[in-house]
Amino acid sequence: MTFPGSARTETVLNTSVNVDIRTALPQRELVPMLDNAFAWLRWVDRTFDPFNEESQIARLNAGRTIEQVPELIEVLHRCDEMAEATDGWFDSRIGGTLDVSGYIKGWAVERLSRALASAGAVDHRITAGRDIRVRGSSLPGRPWRVGIRDPRTNAVRRMVFANDLAISTSGKTRVVDPRTGEAQHVLGWVTVIGPDLSTADAFATAMYAMGPIRARRFAMDLAAAEPYEVMIVTRGGRSVSTPGFALYGTPSQLAG
């Protein structure tokens, strides 16, 4: 099937990133739009990668002079806010070393999604590893259909349908308990869905670090107070979801 728009995939932010624009715009607009999209993601990578010794994060960790970058101030401020919102389970300063990896990919994709919508590409899907942002329609009248995959097997565990949603899954990659500094492997994965990908990304990272009992309690409290829903899966494959997660289960439910 031929789709309107255009798509591109590149490796950036240590993962494969796909930008799929379905708005029927002329190629003379779509090509520079995609060029700018990946230029932005590469800038984020250069600025925030803690393993690049010339990045602003690495320079901060080394006590070197940094540039006055407004986006850096914004990210550090939001990381501190997410640490407070999760009672310290999301922590960008474990062991005294600054690392915003649990936030920056979601933040970069969310910013890109807003920029694309403002530029007229109102129908798009951005996939960056297990972080996904959809807006508009995949085809006229059709919501986006997104499979939530088991990070260990890549098998689709659940489908969600949405016209405007952020989806972030934390699992498989190394997540550290900020209170002990030890890697967490108790849960299989945690998926958070909601209106903002950077926030969903941070919440998913925090709950994966919490372990099953504390994560489930936090998820229920979160869903009761904020527009975010959660699915938690144990290493044995058992899952529990907040009540609102089911609302994204079929395309017909979105029409109401």
Automatic annotation (TrEMBL):
<dbReference type="InterPro" id="IPR003374">
    <property type="entry name" value="ApbE-like_sf"/>
</dbReference>
<dbReference type="Pfam" id="PF02424">
    <property type="entry name" value="ApbE"/>
</dbReference>
<keyword id="KW-0285">Flavoprotein</keyword>
<protein>
    <recommendedName>
        <fullName>FAD:protein FMN transferase</fullName>
        <ecNumber>2.7.1.180</ecNumber>
    </recommendedName>
</protein>
<keyword id="KW-0460">Magnesium</keyword>
<keyword id="KW-0479">Metal-binding</keyword>
<keyword id="KW-0274">FAD</keyword>
<keyword id="KW-0449">Lipoprotein</keyword>
<dbReference type="GO" id="GO:0016740">
    <property type="term" value="F:transferase activity"/>
</dbReference>
<keyword id="KW-0808">Transferase</keyword>
<dbReference type="GO" id="GO:0046872">
    <property type="term" value="F:metal ion binding"/>
</dbReference>
<dbReference type="InterPro" id="IPR024932">
    <property type="entry name" value="ApbE"/>
</dbReference>
